[in-house]
Specification:
2 copies of one chain form a homodimer. Chain A is of the alpha+beta class. In chain A, 16% of the residues lie in helices and 44% in strands. The first copy, chain A, has 6 helices and 24 strands. Chain A is elongated. At the A-B interface, helix 1, strand 7, helix 5 and strand 19 of A face helix 1, strand 7, helix 5 and strand 19 of B. Strand 19 of chain A pairs antiparallel with strand 7 of chain B, so a sheet runs across the interface.
Chain lengths: 344, 344
């Protein structure tokens, strides 16, 4: 359907409305405009984006000719462009789903939640229920969870006021990615609305609609270790830099990086016989039983880059059991990571 | 030859020397070091680059083990890495060519000359003599010229003191690209040296050696129009923005953008029947006979981005004859551009 490459533009009262869809995710926004005569058209989205990106700083005049050949004229300053489109009447307009408001959260918090979980979602299309971000709302809490089977990220945020209804649904990671790009950060509220097999996010004049992924999300609570054998506190940036360096010589051996604490030092190391090896010591505060454990460095770097905390708290349960990372002293974000089995 | 992917490291008196080569271009540099014991090794360049890029801010200790397995240990702060290399004795050391100094020019000027000409060189390997930048030195002037047959860029710079000898040689564009990246900008002088079939650029401890391209460079002077029918002066940034916008609807029709001056307005336009059309007016100061002419927008955008002048002077000779662009009021840079034949 070539028209799906087009963006819909239509006049409203004192506004123009833009819509785009891939039949799974849809976005629309209204922006203030002085409308002298009504009209609508669809035009190639990529071309229109490029035109808009290069317009000079000035008011833009849009003039649509609906009869064939369907065109829009974009005039701005000394510049004038006429672009061929397709009739607005051919655009696949999904009926507005009947939806009910679930809860409200600020744009900044919602974007942060997406950023801290989405990278853990799976890209394996044979298990579609893992390719989304699990969104749970109940009472005074909204949660997002994503997992690819090897690691899991869970972020909680308090709701005030509390949710109007319960919700749990798997939202495609692609939608979440586009949502995070489209949302304004800051304090402007986003309303989460639930419809049949769909979720709708509304922020001001922006409306993002997405189908939900069918299926049962894994029992994520079961995955989170309830006890630990060793707890390590370490400066996040120091750990990130060290893991990044040590992982250079792990690239050709599945990114395996080893960790071991002795006293107030954690030794991070890697070894790829045909390439070389690396070793770095990082100051830590540790308690509990010492052990050797190995992780995939990429999975660690992913989370260390979004932890947003000066201190990282690492809890280990054994060389074959999942460890956890969380921001030091906080309980609103947890990352569960299966070790690599190099220590038998 | 896998060792060509490696960089050579060897100790000197109070310095270490780094060398790399692809057998056509070679680079070497010495950097100050405290040498306690001599040694040399070659190690994978990409791996070494990545290690160095991620080292903490601190002194670096290098320790080479020359006997098999040949390794280098890189220690810095709390970090230590050991990387496998290949013996320095296997590195293809080209004999230092006997070269004679030709002239001196500052790093900033040489980089500028490369930037203003290199994009006009051809990428067509069937005409190797067009894939380089022609370097001419004589008396009080150094010139660079590059052309792909459709356009030509010529940049001149005055030499003080004058050249010690004449030179004309075609240097591979690839070398020029790497040279511009490696040179320090600013006032530090670069010496151009000529050897048999080779050119050597030296700036401080940096030494870039390149083979020359055999063949006869086209008679570039013949290509530069000596007269014009219309001369147009226009604000460079205004022209650049307008051409960029108008070219959006020219993408699918060979980037053809049309120009025509009436009075103090230049109209820039494009038209691709199945996509759309664009038109923009730009204020100009024009003299001479008015005409219609079309150019490849990409070729114009290339030069407008490196012209480094508030005003562009455009001289037209006819719809089928080359036009020229130069920085307003200056004669040290000229760009010759064949029109696209859309006006019969």
């Amino acid at each position: 359907m070539p028209i799906l490459n087009n963006v819909f533009l239509g006049s409203q009262k004192n506004a123009i409305k833009l819509m785009a869809t891939d039949l799974e995710t849809g976005m629309q926004i209204s922006i203030p405009a002085t409308v002298t005569e009504g009209g609508a058209i669809t035009i190639p989205a990529r071309l229109f984006t490029e035109i808009v990106a290069h317009l000079p700083e000035d008011d833009v005049q849009l003039q649509v000719k609906e009869e064939a050949p369907t065109t829009i004229e974009v005039a701005c300053g000394a510049s004038s462009m006429e672009v061929l489109g397709l009739p607005a009447t051919d655009f696949p307009l999904a009926p507005e789903p009947e939806s009910e408001a679930v809860c409200e959260v600020t744009g900044e918090l919602l974007r942060g939640m997406i950023r801290q979980t989405i990278f853990s979602a799976s890209t394996d299309e044979t298990r579609p229920f893992l390719t989304g971000v699990y969104l749970l709302v109940e009472g005074k809490e909204i949660k997002m969870v994503a997992t690819d089977g090897g690691r899991l990220a869970l972020r909680r945020v308090s709701l005030d006021p509390p949710a109007r209804q319960k919700m749990n649904a798997i939202v495609p990671a692609k939608t979440m990615h586009e949502l995070a790009r489209a949302l304004a950060g800051g304090e402007e509220k986003v309303t989460v609305n639930l419809a049949e097999k769909q979720v709708v996010f509304v922020q001001g004049q922006l409306r993002v609609t997405s189908r939900l992924i069918a299926g049962q999300f894994p029992n994520y609570q079961q995955v989170i270790p309830q006890e630990f054998k060793q707890r390590i506190r370490v400066n996040t940036d120091r750990l990130l830099q060290a893991v990044r360096r040590v992982s250079i010589t792990a690239r050709d051996s599945a990114n395996v990086v080893r960790f071991e604490v002795a006293g107030a030092k954690m030794t991070i190391s890697s070894n790829t016989p045909e390439v070389g090896r690396a070793r770095e010591e990082v100051e830590v505060a540790a308690e509990g039983e010492g052990m050797q454990v190995a992780f995939n460095a990429k999975y660690l770097l992913d989370v260390l880059g979004v932890l947003d905390a000066e201190e990282t708290q690492l809890e280990l349960t054994g060389p074959l059991s999942p460890g956890t990372l969380r921001p030091g002293g906080r309980n609103d974000y947890i990352y569960v990571l299966a070790p690599v089995r190099v220590y038998a």
